[in-house]
C-alpha cells in the first residue's frame, strides 16, 4: 500500500505540473459555457410539410389539420406545392389524390431525403388513411421504440453524455500516454526497475490518478450543466470504471511508442474511431453491429441513462465496464511488464 | 560475496560480443573498481548484475544465489547510481527522493539528510529540470543510498563533479564500505579508482585485461616515467616518457636538447599509464 500511495502521489504531482492539465481546465470552462449559454435548451428540428389533398373526401387534409398543421401549409394545387418546395429546398411536398380505386400519395422533395426516411413518411401518411380505404394492415413496417418514453431532455443537456464519454473518460487514454512519454524522456523507468516496485502498483497508481482526475472533471462538468439531483453513486461508479479502462488502454498503446510524435497518428486515429458512436447517439436509428462493438457505444448510452433516467436497468452497463476494466488491466499488465519493465532484456 | 563467472553479452545476436568471458568476484565490504574507456562494456556488466539486462551466458551469483532466481525483494538491498541521471524533471530533488523512498519495504534514510550530504539541501525544493548536470549526478547518487543498501552499484559517480564535491562523494563511498557495504564502482576516472578501490579490473573491448589491487598492479606493470612540458611553435606541449624504454629515454634527451622545457616531473606510474601500456588505449578515450 505504501508503494502504491507513493507512486500515486508522484504521478498526481507530475500530471498536475503538466501544461496539458491547464488545457483540460480551460476545456472544462469552455464546455460549461457552451452547454449553458451557446446550445439552446430547445430548437426546432422538424421538417416543413406542404399539403395538397386533391381527393373528394379530403381525408388527409382533415387528419393533417387535426394533427395541428396550420393553414399556410395547406395549399390549393399541385403547382403551388411545386413552387413552395422550390422556394424552400428543405421542405417536403405531399400531394394526395384518390381518383381511381386506390388512393395515391406523391412526395415532392429535392432529393435530400434518404430512402429510409421516405418510407417512414409514406408509412406515417398511410396510417391515418387505413380506416377510410380498407388498406392492408402494416406489413411493410413496424414501430420499434429505441428507448422507453421519458420526459424530453433539453438539447443543451443532451450534449453532456457525449462530452463525458469523449472528453472526460478518454482523458486517461491521452494523459497516460503523455505521462509515459515524459517518463521515457526522463529515463526514470530504469531507476524504477531496480526497486521492488513491480508492474502492478505502477499501473494501478496511474489508473487511480486518472480515475480521480476524470471523476472531478466529470462532476465539475455535470453539476453546473445538468444539476445536482442525480444518481451520484451510479455516475461515480461509471466514471471511475470508464476512466480506469481507458487509462489502461492508453498505457497499452503508448508502450509501443517512444514519444508523442510517434504515437500521434495511431493515438488520434483510435480516438476518432472511439468517437463514432456519437453518430448513433445523434441518430439512434443508425446502429450497425460494428459500431456497437466500440467500447464507447454502451458507455455513452449508459451515461445518458444515468443522467436522464428512463427506467432502464444499468446492471449490464456495470458488468460491461467492470469486465472491460479487468480485461484492459490484464492486457496492460502484460504489455507494460514486457515492454517497459523488461526493456532491453 | 558477488561472483561473476564467464559472462558474455551480445546486443546484436550476431556473435559480436560487447562483453566476453568476464569473471571476477567481489568480497563483502570491498570496493571493486571496473575501469575502462567508454564502450568497453562496463555498464553492460553492471546492467546484467542488476537485472536490467538479461543474462545471456555465464553466471552472476549473490551469496551463491543466481541472479536469474532473484526476486523483487532483492532490490531492497541494492542501490544503483546511473551514469546518465534519470530523474523526474518535473519534480523537485526532495520529491524525487521522497517518492523513491516509498518504493522500498525496508527503512529508508531521511531525504533531506541525504541531500545535505552532497550540498543539495538548498536546492531541495527546486525542480530537477533546473539542476545542473553535476547536481543531477549528486541526486542520482544520493537516491542510490536511500534504502541503506548492502550492495552499491555506482556508474561514474564522480562524473561532472567539481573536485570538492567529488571528494565528498568519495568519502561517502568509503563511509559505506566502513559500514560493511560492498561497492561495485564503474568508472573511467583512474584517480577515483586509485583513491578508493580495494581492487580494480581493467576492461577493454569487453574483456578483462588485468585485475588486482592498484598497488599490486603498479608493482607488476608500473614503470618510472617523466612528464615534460615544453614550448613548440608558440604552444605548450606535454609528453610522457617511460624511463625503462630506450626509445623514450632518447626522445626525452632530444626534447631537453632542442626545445624550451617548461617543467620536468618524474612520477610513479598511474593506473592510466598501466592501462595504456596494457591496451594501447587511453581510459578517457
Mean pLDDT of chain A: 84
Termini gap of chain B: 32 Å
Protein structure class of chain A: mainly alpha
> Regarding quaternary structure, how should these chains be classified?
heterodimer
Structure in words:
The complex is a heterodimer of chains A (345) and B (285). Chain A has 345 residues and is mainly alpha-helical. In chain A, 64% of the residues lie in helices and 5% in strands. Chain A has two domains: 2-40 and 155-339, no CATH class; 49-133, no CATH class. Chain A is built from 16 helices and three strands. A three-stranded mixed sheet of chain A has the order 1-2-3, sandwiched between helices. The model of chain A has no long low-confidence stretch (mean pLDDT 84). Chain B has a six-stranded mixed sheet with strand order 6-7-8-3-9-10, sandwiched between helices. Chain B has helices at residues 42-49, 93-101, 111-117, 133-145, 163-178, 190-196, 214-221, 246-258, 271-279, and strands at 2-9, 19-26, 31-35, 57-62, 65-66, 78-81, 151-155, 182-187, 199-204, 207-212, 225-232, 235-242, 260-267. The chains are: A mainly alpha (345), B alpha/beta (285). The interface between A and B is medium-sized, with 29 and 32 residues.
Identify the notable features of this structure and list them briefly:
heterodimer, A: 345 residues, mainly alpha, 2 domains, three-stranded mixed β-sheet, B: 285 residues, alpha/beta, Rossmann fold, six-stranded mixed β-sheet, four-stranded antiparallel β-sheet, 28% strand, globular
Outline the fold blueprint.
The complex is a heterodimer of chains A (345) and B (285).
Chain A: H1 2-16, H2 19-38, E1 49-53, H3 59-66, H4 78-87, E2 92-97, E3 104-108, H5 115-133, H6 155-158, H7 160-168, H8 171-186, H9 188-193, H10 199-225, H11 232-254, H12 260-275, H13 277-282, H14 289-292, H15 296-307, H16 315-339
Parallel strand pairs in A: 1-2
Antiparallel strand pairs in A: 2-3
Helix pairs in contact in A: 1-10, 2-10, 7-15, 8-10, 8-11, 10-11, 10-16, 11-15, 11-16
Chain B: E1 2-9, E2 19-26, E3 31-35, H1 42-49, E4 57-62, E5 65-66, E6 78-81, H2 93-101, H3 111-117, H4 133-145, E7 151-155, H5 163-178, E8 182-187, H6 190-196, E9 199-204, E10 207-212, H7 214-221, E11 225-232, E12 235-242, H8 246-258, E13 260-267, H9 271-279
Parallel strand pairs in B: 3-8, 3-9, 6-7, 7-8
Antiparallel strand pairs in B: 1-2, 1-4, 4-5, 9-10, 11-12, 11-13
Helix pairs in contact in B: 3-4, 7-9
Amino acid at each position: 500500500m505504501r508503494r502504491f500511495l507513493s507512486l500515486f502521489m508522484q504521478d498526481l504531482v507530475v500530471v498536475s505540473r503538466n501544461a496539458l492539465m491547464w488545457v483540460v481546465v480551460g476545456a472544462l470552462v469552455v464546455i460549461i459555457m457552451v452547454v449553458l449559454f451557446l446550445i439552446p435548451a430547445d430548437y426546432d428540428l422538424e421538417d416543413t410539410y406542404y399539403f395538397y389533398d386533391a381527393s373528394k373526401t379530403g381525408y388527409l387534409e382533415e387528419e393533417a389539420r387535426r394533427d395541428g398543421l396550420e393553414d399556410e401549409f395547406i395549399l390549393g394545387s399541385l403547382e403551388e406545392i411545386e413552387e413552395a418546395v422550390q422556394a424552400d429546398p428543405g421542405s417536403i411536398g405531399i400531394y394526395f389524390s384518390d381518383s381511381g380505386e386506390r388512393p395515391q400519395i406523391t412526395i415532392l422533395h429535392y432529393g435530400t431525403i434518404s430512402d429510409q426516411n421516405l418510407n417512414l413518411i409514406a408509412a406515417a401518411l398511410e396510417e391515418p388513411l387505413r380506416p377510410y380505404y380498407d388498406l392492408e394492415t402494416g406489413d411493410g413496417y413496424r414501430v420499434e421504440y429505441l428507448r422507453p418514453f421519458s420526459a424530453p431532455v433539453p438539447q443543451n443537456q443532451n450534449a453532456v453524455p457525449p462530452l463525458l464519454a469523449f472528453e472526460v473518460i478518454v482523458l486517461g487514454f491521452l494523459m497516460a500516454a503523455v505521462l509515459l512519454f515524459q517518463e521515457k524522456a526522463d529515463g526514470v523507468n530504469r531507476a524504477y526497475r531496480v526497486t521492488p516496485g513491480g508492474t502492478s502498483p505502477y499501473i494501478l497508481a496511474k489508473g487511480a490518478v486518472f480515475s480521480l482526475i476524470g471523476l472531478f472533471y466529470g462532476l465539475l462538468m455535470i453539476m453546473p450543466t445538468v444539476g445536482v439531483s442525480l444518481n451520484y453513486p451510479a455516475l461515480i461508479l461509471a466514471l471511475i470504471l470508464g476512466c480506469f479502462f481507458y487509462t489502461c488502454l492508453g498505457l497499452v498503446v503508448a508502450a509501443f511508442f517512444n514519444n508523442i510524435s510517434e504515437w500521434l497518428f495511431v493515438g488520434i486515429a483510435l480516438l476518432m474511431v472511439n468517437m463514432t458512436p456519437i453518430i448513433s447517439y445523434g441518430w439512434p436509428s443508425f446502429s450497425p453491429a460494428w459500431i456497437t462493438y466500440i467500447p464507447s457505444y454502451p458507455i455513452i448510452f449508459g451515461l445518458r441513462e444515468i443522467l436522464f433516467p428512463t427506467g432502464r436497468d444499468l446492471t449490464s452497463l456495470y458488468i460491461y465496464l467492470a469486465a472491460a476494466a479487468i480485461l484492459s488491466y490484464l492486457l496492460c499488465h502484460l504489455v507494460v511488464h514486457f515492454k517497459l519493465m523488461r526493456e532491453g532484456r | 560475496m558477488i561472483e561473476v563467472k564467464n559472462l558474455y553479452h551480445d546486443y546484436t545476436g550476431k556473435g559480436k560480443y560487447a562483453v566476453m568471458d568476464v569473471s571476477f568476484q567481489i568480497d563483502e565490504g570491498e570496493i571493486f573498481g571496473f575501469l575502462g574507456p567508454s564502450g568497453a562494456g562496463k555498464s553492460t556488466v553492471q546492467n546484467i548484475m542488476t537485472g536490467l539486462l538479461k543474462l545471456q551466458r555465464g553466471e552472476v551469483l549473490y551469496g551463491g544465489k543466481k541472479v536469474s532466481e532473484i526476486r523483487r525483494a532483492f532490490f531492497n538491498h541494492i542501490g544503483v547510481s546511473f551514469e546518465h541521471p534519470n530523474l523526474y524533471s518535473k519534480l523537485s530533488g526532495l520529491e524525487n527522493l521522497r517518492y523513491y523512498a516509498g518504493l522500498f519495504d525496508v527503512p529508508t534514510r531521511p531525504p533531506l539528510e541525504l541531500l545535505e550530504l552532497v550540498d543539495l539541501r538548498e536546492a531541495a525544493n527546486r525542480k530537477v529540470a533546473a539542476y545542473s548536470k553535476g547536481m543531477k549526478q549528486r541526486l542520482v547518487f544520493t537516491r542510490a543510498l536511500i534504502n541503506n543498501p548492502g550492495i552499491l552499484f555506482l556508474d561514474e559517480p564522480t562524473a561532472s563533479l567539481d573536485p570538492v564535491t567529488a571528494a565528498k562523494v568519495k568519502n561517502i563511498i568509503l563511509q559505506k564500505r566502513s559500514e560493511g557495504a560492498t561497492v561495485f564502482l564503474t568508472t573511467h576516472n583512474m584517480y577515483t579508482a586509485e583513491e578508493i578501490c580495494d581492487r580494480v579490473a581493467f576492461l577493454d573491448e569487453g574483456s578483462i585485461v588485468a585485475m588486482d589491487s592498484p598497488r599490486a598492479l603498479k608493482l607488476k606493470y608500473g614503470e618510472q616515467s617523466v612528464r615534460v612540458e615544453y614550448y613548440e611553435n608558440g604552444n605548450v606541449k606535454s609528453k610522457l616518457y617511460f624511463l625503462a624504454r630506450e626509445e623514450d629515454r632518447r626522445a626525452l634527451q632530444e626534447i631537453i636538447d632542442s626545445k624550451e622545457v617548461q617543467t620536468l616531473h618524474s612520477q610513479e606510474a598511474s593506473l592510466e599509464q598501466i592501462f595504456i601500456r596494457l591496451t594501447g588505449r587511453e581510459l578517457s578515450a
